[in-house]
Amino acid sequence: MSMDTPQPFLPFALPDIGDEEIAEVVDTLRSGWVTTGPKAKRFEADFSEFLGDPGLHSMAVNSATAGLHLALEALGIGPGDEVITTTHTFTATAEVVRYLGADVVLVDIDPATLCIDIAAVEAAITPRTKAVIPVHYAGRAADMQALLALAKQRGLKVVEDAAHALPTTCGGHLVGTLASDATVFSFYANKTITTGEGGMVVTRDAELAKRVKVMRLHGISRDAFDRFTSKVPSWYYEIVAPGFKYNLTDIAAALGLQQLKKARAFQQRRQAIAMQYHQALADLPLTLPPGPEAGDLHSWHLYVVRLGDAVPVTRDLFIERLFAAGIGCSVHYIPLHVQPYWRERYDLQAARFPHSQHAYERLVSLPMYSRMTAADVQRVATAARAALSG
Ligand SMILES: *Cc1c(COP(=O)(O)O)cnc(C)c1O
Q: Which of 19, 106, 265, 341 has the most CB atoms around it within 10 Å of its CB?
């Protein structure tokens, strides 16, 4: 390519949608059943099968945000309660706690993994604490062994924000099959599989599953009828609570059915990209993202590098230079403690979150998606090298 022909823009993320997804969506459109129906149901069954645990209830919803809200509602979180989560996340993780009138207690992260610091969780527990929401940051599992042990000891519920973690393993077990109360996945456009918008709540708790199913669709229950007669007429339902409109459409589920079949292959491709980045960036003054624990799987939803303290360019300038070279980057995350709503609501100071603050000022998410070619990765690495020089 000649110098004056600019290369096409390389986005930060891109969905990987093939002919199979398109055919499945067209089939749905032709079927006449476009809202929640047989494909959403099949997507749920396939999801439990993917996780490989027949004891799981998988419940499709229209976003992970909806799923987190439903899981906490089903656990009875409400006014007066506190829920602990990481400051280093997307606002959705925490906002759902506020939907329920409960309070959010933000804590700092482990400086190596950027996942929630379990010692900080322990220090933040009060008599009002009801639950903890860990985030498997970038697709690397949080320290769930320590967190689940702490939660059990202190009688706390655990809802995993697994928006980045399909597929991720922890101690050899897929996230979604661990001993937490519920796990919530996201199928947002830039996640490891996508339905455009969508999510999945997974639990082993039959009562919790029942509540989530009722609340995701207007508080409608058909079970009440069962007590009096064996056959529920198709038109009959009862409203048992002021529920939400959080169901996943069959159009979205059609995408999910085909995306899920590719989830393993997507992970392998993302892992190969991460390994190529590791090699190409190894000699640069960057902190590269940690791999998974030995024997575990990292979904590599994100590839997050941190600029070394001695680098002569700021993170902002680094991103500007990559952008000028036609490369999209992002920042995961602007921590919640610096966001106006959270900062003001809880009077938060950055000094309370030194690891998150330090990481935030230096981190950049480089392009990462399964359709990237080896040449794309090399192009990013070359541009990163140039952008780091004074
Ligand atoms: C994407 C994301 C969410 C929200 O997912 P939606 O499906 O868009 O609601 C929640 N938490 C984290 C960490 C995310 O990255």
A: 106
Residues noted as catalytic: 191
Q: How far is Cα 7 from Cα 3, in angstroms, rounded to an integer?
A: 9
What is the span of the domain harbouring residue 211? Answer: 19-261
CATH number of the domain within which 302 lies: 3.90.1150.10
Query: In terms of domains, do 70 and 133 share one?
Result: yes
Q: Look at ligand 1, atom 2, and give the residue with the nearest C-alpha.
A: 163
What pLDDT, in 10s, does the model give residues 246-296? Answer: 999 999 999 999 999 999 999 999 999 999 999 999 999 999 999 999 999
Question: Is residue 150 a contact partner of residue 122, using CB atoms and an 8 Å limit?
Answer: yes
pLDDT digits (tens, 9 = 90+) for 83-102: 999 999 999 999 999 999 99
**In-domain check, residue 189:** yes
Choice from 161, 248, 330 to test ligand 1 binding pocket (greatest atom count within 8 A of CB):
161
Q: What is the pLDDT of residue 155?
A: 98
> What angle (nearest 5°) sits at the alpha carbon of residue 387, between those of residues 381 and 390?
140
Domain contains 233 = yes
- The count of structural domains within the chain is 2
- Structure tokens belonging to residue 106: 């933000």
Please provide residue 57's backbone torsions phi and psi, each rounded to the nearest 5 degrees.
Answer: -105, 120
CA of 179 to the centre of ligand 1 (A): 21
CA of 26 to the centre of ligand 1 (A): 27
Mean pLDDT over all residues of the chain? 96
The residue to which tokens 């491709």 are assigned: 269
pLDDT surpasses 80 at 351: yes
**Is any atom of ligand 1 closer than 6 Å to the C-beta of 64?**
yes
